[in-house]
């Protein structure tokens, strides 16, 4: 799928994350996290997996995390992707 | 649950609540949100452009998650409105609560801390890194922050003098578009005016120096206690973030003969910056015909239609711009020439 418009999902609460998507020519993933030092690579792996599964090859993905578990990251990112998709 | 406060009744409640928490209610926001518990307003927050303000939480509810709910809603609204990131000013003691929400501390001062959501400073730093070669060990870097409204021979002289006083000179052009000449034109004229000088790097300063976020009083020509705190925070940001990011240990500035706000800012520079290892070097203004050349002299000449005075005041690129169609449009706007600032 293609990121056709700006979209967001999630909250700023503990154990959750906020995802913001916007169209771009290249694919970029920016991660901010209160546990970045320990878990940046694991968050990135989940994001990459979801993006690959949905065939996203371009767009700007911004994510601020407060210690969300994998399924929360997947769910928030998938929700944001469906909101950003062409209708 | 956080909701937008839209009705005049809700807004009146917000005003009472915000004032009861020791903050002042400032109209002129884009969003005002609040949270109710058992019918009572217990938390508020507002967004004006990319700045969050009037964030207040009833002390009885402060241990919970309300700050995240309010800030999160305002950030969501701010990003949806197209902002790259959001700023918040708070008391230094509250900075960690925002850091836990993924805000990053930009600068702290005795009375106020500035934080940012969205990782924009890190992107600014990375972008500036791409524009310069690494400095050899032992070399010194200096910086001038300038509005260049427009770039004059006075600026040019200041740049030449400063460039002699260090191995690399950064020209940080104020981005805020509140001046007579638009940012894109000001930036281009600085680039062209300093092109022949070795190791002078011209940068877009973004919102990180003398901006509507860090130092709004500059654009209002204020010199009161609020302006004093703003300029000290603006300089703390320079000392704590910009200077280390660029490796700058010297800040050059022209002496200010006329504008009280700029003079107060220069004085604050000498107060604040040395603590961060940045030496302040004040250079006298160059004169033409017994008068200091400043951008306001140029604007006054333009406003009064005195084209003959221009070649003695501005370099070639600026002159060509002033006489172009684009420059003429700005001159038409200048009219009475009431607005200030070099």
> Which fold name fills CATH's third level, the topology of the largest domain in chain B?
Rossmann fold
Mind telling me the C-alpha Rg of chain B?
22 Å
Low-confidence stretches of chain A: none
Q: Please report the first level of CATH classification, the CATH class of chain A.
A: Alpha Beta
Strand content of chain A: 25-35%
Ends of chain A: how far apart? 11 Å
- Whole-number average pLDDT of chain B? 91
Low-confidence stretches of chain B: none
Shape, per Cα inertia axes of chain A: globular
User: What characterizes the major β-sheet of chain B?
Assistant: 7 strands, mixed
What's the number of domains of chain B?
2
The first-level CATH class of the largest domain in chain B is given as Alpha Beta
Q: Major β-sheet of chain A, in short?
A: 4 strands, mixed
- The helix tally of chain A amounts to 2
Radius of gyration of chain A: 12 Å
Structural class of chain A: alpha+beta
Please identify the structural class of chain B as seen in this structure. alpha/beta
Strand order of the biggest β-sheet of chain A: 1-2-4-3
Whole-number tally of structural domains of chain A? 1
The assembly state of the depicted protein chains is heterodimer
Keywords:
heterodimer, A: 87 residues, alpha+beta, Ribosomal Protein S5, domain 2, 2 helices, B: 342 residues, alpha/beta, Aminopeptidase, seven-stranded mixed beta sheet, five-stranded parallel beta sheet, 12 helices
Concise synopsis of the structure shown:
With 87 residues, chain A is an alpha+beta fold.
Describe the structure.
The complex is a heterodimer of chains A (87) and B (342). Chain A has 87 residues and is of the alpha+beta class. Chain A has a single domain (7-84), classed as Ribosomal Protein S5, domain 2 (2-Layer Sandwich), CATH 3.30.230.10. Chain A is built from two helices and four strands; from the N terminus they run E-E-E-H-E-H. In chain A, helix 1 (36-53) packs across helix 2. The mean pLDDT of chain A is 96. In chain B, the strands form three sheets. In chain B, strands 1-2-3-4-5-7-6 form a seven-stranded mixed beta sheet, sandwiched between helices. In chain B, strands 10-9-8-11-12 form a five-stranded parallel beta sheet, with helices on both faces. Chain B has 342 residues and is α/β, with parallel strands linked by helices. Chain B has two domains: 2-88, Gcn5-related N-acetyltransferase (GNAT) (Aminopeptidase, 3-Layer(aba) Sandwich), CATH 3.40.630.30; 131-334, Rossmann fold. In chain B, helix 6 (183-194) runs antiparallel to helix 11 (316-323) and helix 11 crosses helix 12. The chains are: A alpha+beta (87), B alpha/beta (342). At the A-B interface, strand 3 and strand 4 of A face helix 2 of B.
């Amino acid at each position: 799928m293609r990121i056709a418009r700006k979209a967001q999902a999630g909250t700023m609460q503990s154990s959750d994350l906020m995802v913001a998507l916007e169209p771009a020519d290249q694919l970029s993933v920016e991660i901010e996290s209160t546990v970045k030092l320990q878990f940046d690579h694991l968050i990135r792996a989940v994001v990459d997996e979801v993006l690959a599964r949905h065939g996203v090859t371009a767009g700007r993905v911004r994510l601020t995390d407060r210690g969300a578990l994998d399924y929360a990251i997947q769910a928030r990112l998938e929700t944001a992707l469906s909101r950003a998709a062409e209708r | 649950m956080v909701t937008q406060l839209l009705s005049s009744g809700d807004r009146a409640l917000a005003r009472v609540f915000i004032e009861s928490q020791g903050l002042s209610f400032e109209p002129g926001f884009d969003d005002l949100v609040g949270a109710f518990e058992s019918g009572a307003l217990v938390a508020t927050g507002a967004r004006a452009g990319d700045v969050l303000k009037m964030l207040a939480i009833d002390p009885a509810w402060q241990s919970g998650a309300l700050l995240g709910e309010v800030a999160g809603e305002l950030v969501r609204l701010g990003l949806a409105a197209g902002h790259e990131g959001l700023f918040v000013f708070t008391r230094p003691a509250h900075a960690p609560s925002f850091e836990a929400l993924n805000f990053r501390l930009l600068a702290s001062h005795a009375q106020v801390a500035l934080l940012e959501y969205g990782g924009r400073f890190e992107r600014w730093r990375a972008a500036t890194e791409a524009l310069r070669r690494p400095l050899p060990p032992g070399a010194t870097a200096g910086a001038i922050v300038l509005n260049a409204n427009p770039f004059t021979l006075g600026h040019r002289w200041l740049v030449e003098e400063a460039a002699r006083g260090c191995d690399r000179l950064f020209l940080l052009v104020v981005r805020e578009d509140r001046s007579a000449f638009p940012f894109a034109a000001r930036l281009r004229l600085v680039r062209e005016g300093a092109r022949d000088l070795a190791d002078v790097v011209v940068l877009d300063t973004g919102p990180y120096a003398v901006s509507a976020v860090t130092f709004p009083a500059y654009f209002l020509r204020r010199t009161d206690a609020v302006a004093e705190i703003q300029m000290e925070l603006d300089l703390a940001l320079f000392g704590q973030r910009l200077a280390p990011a660029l490796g700058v240990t010297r800040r050059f500035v022209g002496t200010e003969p006329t504008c009280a706000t700029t003079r107060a800012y220069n004085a604050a520079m000498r107060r604040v910056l040395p603590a961060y290892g940045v030496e302040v070097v004040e250079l006298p203004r160059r004169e033409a015909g017994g008068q200091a050349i400043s951008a306001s002299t140029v604007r006054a000449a333009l406003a009064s239609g005195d084209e003959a005075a221009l070649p003695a005041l501005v370099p070639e690129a600026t002159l060509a711009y002033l006489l172009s169609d684009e420059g003429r449009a700005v001159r038409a706007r200048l009219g009475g020439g009431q607005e200030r600032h070099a």
